UniProtKB/TrEMBL annotation:
GO terms (BP aspect): pyruvate decarboxylation to acetyl-CoA
UniProt KW keywords: Oxidoreductase, Pyruvate, Thiamine pyrophosphate
GO molecular function: pyruvate dehydrogenase (acetyl-transferring) activity
The protein's name in its UniProt record: Pyruvate dehydrogenase E1 component subunit alpha
A matching Pfam family: E1_dh
Catalyzed chemical reaction(s): N(6)-[(R)-lipoyl]-L-lysyl-[protein] + pyruvate + H(+) = N(6)-[(R)-S(8)-acetyldihydrolipoyl]-L-lysyl-[protein] + CO2
InterPro entries given in the database record: DH_E1, PDH_E1_Alpha_Subunit, Pyrv_DH_E1_asu_subgrp-y, THDP-binding
UniProt cross-references to NCBIfam families, sorted A to Z: PDH_E1_alph_y
Job description of the protein: The pyruvate dehydrogenase complex catalyzes the overall conversion of pyruvate to acetyl-CoA and CO(2).
Annotated ranges, domain Dehydrogenase E1 component: 28-332
Amino acid sequence: MVQERTLPVFHAATAQITREQGLVLYEDMVLGRMFEDKCAEMYYRGKMFGFVHLYNGQEAVSSGVIQAMRPGEDYVCSTYRDHVHALSAGVPAKEVLAELFGKATGCSKGRGGSMHMFSAEHRLLGGYAFVAEGIPVAAGAAFQSKYRREALGDATADQVTACFFGDGACNNGQFYETLNMAALWKLPILFVVENNKWAIGMAHERATSQPEIYKKASVFGMEGVEVDGMDVLAVHAVAREAVARARAGEGPTLIEALTYRFRGHSLADPDELRTKTEKEFWFARDPITRLAAYLVEQNLAQQEELKAIDRKIQQTIDEAVQFAESSPEPDPSELYRFIFAEDE
Ligand SMILES: Cc1ncc(C[n+]2csc(CCOP(=O)(O)OP(=O)(O)O)c2C)c(N)n1
Ligand SMILES: [Mg+2]
């Protein structure tokens, strides 16, 4: 039997989150989970097409990192598994779902679909279909903040960028090239690796000579940390430190979050390669159940309050479905609109 990599020990008591922060994290993760479950349902009902990659199981990473930032001000760069990053960054669920339905009211005006969520308003730099494609784009965003602050003297330009990508992306050259420049220029950026152990059907250990990705930071003289990606409080604590470091001009951090996707690679994947034992090990670490138990145990929230949040989010999702269904498709006469920024 393959041994699971030992998860870093984290003592929740040291996190010292307030009740408000705990509830924000809970609500954000529930939104991500319920949204993705609804996507699966809508996909199988034929409401959306193409590849759709869901985020179930990984919510603690998106919520833990993005809620440690200033959503709507700081930048977020995603991958093709991008719906939940968009939601955590503040893009309304109805605009993400409308995008999935290819509707004109979608956050990318119905032109992008599942893998291309984008919102200038929410500083979401996009989903990207190519593995590792977002990494240099995120570094560009971090560079412009630093350039505006240091070269142009704009003291308000203290934005931080969070760049999310998978374990598979770390075997792509863009990862190494960008880490080098980001460390050299001390860019205000968090490189967040969501190590879910698999790149489609390729097990991480089979493809990677040094599977402990966070250690790769050291060769660039960069901070590297591993964190239990199924524990939102642990992710949040690590992210807060990294954000503070970036904002203070002390440069980037490589965060490796050990996590797991609860579904197949995409909705077209029968998910037959991963063993039952492995899945069960990770299902037992569901980040939402875990945070709920912590909040109740610590008397930060009552079970009933959490249920009320679940109901509220369910309503948000139902409204998103109605909005997406009743929205118009982009008009064919507008096919060439939004290709250039000036069309905005
Ligand atoms: C440059 C490039 N090569 C190959 C692919 C095909 N591909 C799509 S997803 C994927 C696996 C990536 O896995 P990982 O980075 O671990 O992200 P995860 O899907 O686990 O979130 C591959 C190889 C691609 N999209 N882009
Ligand atoms: Mg992966």
